[in-house]
Amino acid sequence: MDTQLHAVALNCTLKPSPDQSSTDVITDQLLTELASHGVTAETIRIVDYDVKPGVEADMGTGDQWPQILERINAADILVFGTPTWVGHMSSVAQRVLERLDAALSATDDQGRPVMFGKVALVAVVGNEDGAHKIIADAFQGLNDIGFSIPAQGGTYWNHEAMNPKDYKDLDETPPAVAATNKTAAANAVHLARQLARDQYPAT
């Protein structure tokens, strides 16, 4: 019987709720694809929480990162979603990676980093260039922290240069994006189930 998996999407938009977010649209599409494989899911819009700057798991009074980290720890698949701003991931996304850095020193009962065995997908939207580099930077950071990246685990949409348009305002999902979402989700589930059955060796 297949292992029951859970995913958490981190929406790193700069827009607080209830503002509409293109990042929400693409991460929701990935979660829908994951659900087709029996994966349960939830979304956290990071900007709605007080996530303090720093590189510790808990930055003290008022810091709400620990409750987010608890939900990441309980998940098998992480969906890391960010908009593109001035050619880079959002400042919120960068802060998430900085806060996740603390996981490098946290280990399980066999000495493995706690994020070993978890799979990460990256989703990027924007009306300017930058998606390939953002995905590369996010992959490197997440992999350093301990997440595994499935084949073709990044999905993105960029509108043509100098002609702004938001992903959330499209009449339909471009076929290439829909196909990439489908493949990324299927490969993430496959890898997560493999790791659930056969975790990385103890260090």
TrEMBL record:
Gene3D superfamilies: 3.40.50.360. Signal peptide: none annotated. One of its GO terms (molecular function) is oxidoreductase activity. Pfam families: FMN_red. Residues 18-147 form the NADPH-dependent FMN reductase-like domain. This is Multimeric flavodoxin WrbA. The lineage of its organism: Bacteria, Bacillati, Actinomycetota, Actinomycetes, Micrococcales.
